Amino acid sequence: MSTSTKGPVIIITGTPGTGKTTHAQLLVEESPVPLRHINVGQWAKERNLYESYDEEWQSHTVDEDRLLDELEPLVAEGGLVLDWHTCELFPERWADLVVVLRCDHTRLWERLEKRDYALKKIQENNEAEIMEVVLDEARSSYAPEIVVELKSEGTEDLENNVARIVQWIDVWKKDRGSSN
Ligand code: DAT
Fold it and tell me: What pTM does this model have?
């Protein structure tokens, strides 16, 4: 568990296009405690935390050691939402809650097409979603009681999911209050 007293560290993960950033943004607005949203992909890009560029996949390979070094002090402060398509590199002690977003593969395909992803990248992500790659990763990296799988297909799902996470934060806060 995070040692923070300020706020929890929540990881929102899932295949690209499942709604991580959309959820993180709404959660920051609705959270009862201040939360800072870090879109880890963008964060790495802004700081050039890359070790190479993969031509085949048209994507950069993140320098994981440097990424973790830069994130560590922010995690220590607490009150963080980490939004990324993978989660297994984050140390288990960082996470208070790991949310894995899921989406029907037809809908996911449409979302990724709108992003102008190359066909191969759409296929790869679509297959990963069907095979539950990110969910398996989360389950094998964190204690089962902190991993939550949530459907993210429509606006109603988005609102319900964020309301659920807000409820979880309320309980987290109460637990902290009574144990201090
Ligand atoms: P991610 O951050 O996982 O890559 P996103 O938040 O950028 O995904 O969402 C991709 C697109 O899909 C974006 O146009 C918003 C839409 N979307 C995602 N989840 C949704 C939901 N539950 N309801 C409606 N639209 C959603």
Answer: 0.95
Separation of CA 99 and ligand 1 centre (Å): 14
Q: Is 22 in the pocket of ligand 1 (CB under 6 A)?
A: yes
To which CATH superfamily is domain 9-174 assigned? P-loop containing nucleotide triphosphate hydrolases (3.40.50.300)
Distance 101 CA to ligand 1 centre (A): 10
Instruction: Decide: 21 and 109 in contact? Cβ < 8 Å.
Output: no
Q: Does the pLDDT of residue 166 top 70, yes or no?
A: yes
Q: Is the CB of 158 under 6 A from ligand 1?
A: yes
3-class secondary structure, 142 = coil
Q: Over the stretch 90-123, which tens digit does the pLDDT of each residue have? A: 999 999 999 999 999 999 999 999 998 999 999 9
Domain limits, the chain:
9-174
Cα distances (angstroms) measured from residue 117 to each of 17, 19, 37, 123, 152: 11, 16, 24, 10, 20
Distance from the alpha carbon of residue 48 to the mean position of ligand 1, in angstroms? 25
